[in-house]
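tool=predict chain=A
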Amino acid sequence: MDILLSTNMYDKGMLKRVLKYLLEFKGRIGVEVFPLFQDAGYEDELINCMKVLETIPSSFHGPYYRAEHSAFKGSEEYVRTMDYVRKTLEYSKKLNSKYMVFHHNNCKVKKEHREEMIRNSCENYREIEELFGEAQIPVYVENAGVMDRGNMLFNQEEFIALCKNEKYRVLIDIGHAHANGWNLSDTMEALKDQIKAYHIHNNDGIHDDHNRIMDGTLDFDKFISDYRRFTPEADIVVEYSREVADDEDGIKEDVDYILKAFH
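tool=predict ok
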């Protein structure tokens, strides 16, 4: 298993800030790149970080901003999203990425469009899986969306059933599960043979805040115990918000804690 630090907490122009952690922890942690290809100049930032990123374990989150996997093929959203996906694949190959993370949707879910969204996103996943499969990079399906934002496409039972039926490789975002009122332990047990990674952060049980691991109502020590029982080989990705980015001492403290807890 690897412990990775997500660049989700960095806006355009800030990517190089992740390098200090990667260098300080000297190969003990890697990075999950949260790509911002929709922003002019981002690609140059990524290229400037490649010398360090090439030396550590890495993964890529799928495109998020201005990207929508539930869009129907041929639509403007679909074409734009797939352009970002191909760009993500380009850099995934360069960094020998362990995997890419897939969201079935990012947009809000309207009841009358839900079935169509599911159908489109399942088809689009298979297209992306094949695309990345040519480079031998697996695509992990995340439990994306939260009720508070109106973009939860699947509840707990539906997500588990879909992952089992489709035989997905799975990434569980524990903050999303907590904000949606899921029983995290039950989800982990049900999908233990398919879970390959986790996004870890905390919140108040309602909002998807991506706080530090102990800043919220999710019982993080219980998660550690369940992780050891059910999925002791899965990767751990620290995925904090932009509001946490300036708390550099806190981030280092959490990474230290995680390194001790999961090794």
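The radius of gyration is 17 Å. DSSP finds nine helices and eight strands in the chain.
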